[in-house]
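Morning F.,

Quick status update on the modeling queue. The single chain you submitted on Monday has been processed. Sequence for confirmation:
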Amino acid sequence: AINGFEQALEAFVTIDVALAVANVVTSSGTAWICPRVTPSDSHMRFVALTNACIPDCVPVDVQQSNSGVLVTGFNSSGKSTLLRSIGMATVLHQVTGVVPAGDAAMPVFDRICSRAGATDALAIGCSTFMSQLLDTAKILRAIDNTPGHKLALFDEVGANTNEVEGFALAVSIMNFCVARGANSWFATHFTAPKIQKRVVMD
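Structure tokens below.
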């Protein structure tokens, strides 16, 4: 009897999720697509990708050509929004099967790691920079110690400290992730030529 109840409950939950997804897709006013699933070592591609949480989000085309992608630009240029859109599209793809885009092709990931935002816990002596380092360390350990295909998103790598230290951190984190085969995206305020001289984007 318990197994039958659990099966019925699972069926109701599945139907509820499917109806919720259908409601969002049909009422959002944004194009949605079922992405083509590609091999785990392939790159992601999006046409007219938007962020489902941002009204009037400007669609963007994304064509990944390396396992490590560097996103640079001035303040308020959309670096963080792009990384969040990619992260959200990945989660939506693996949970619901649809993403807010005109077209998409992407692999399935075993682990999704993200470091974004500025937080602190001054009451326990944890500054914004320390919080960033602790979060980054957790992600690097996950990339290094867990099997499977991983997606890593780092927003403003090397921020909240002086330029020399920040640049060294950014380069080290990028090289670490790329060398271990993680599908890695980095948004940073450091200029692209300066970073690319020291990072091997395989």
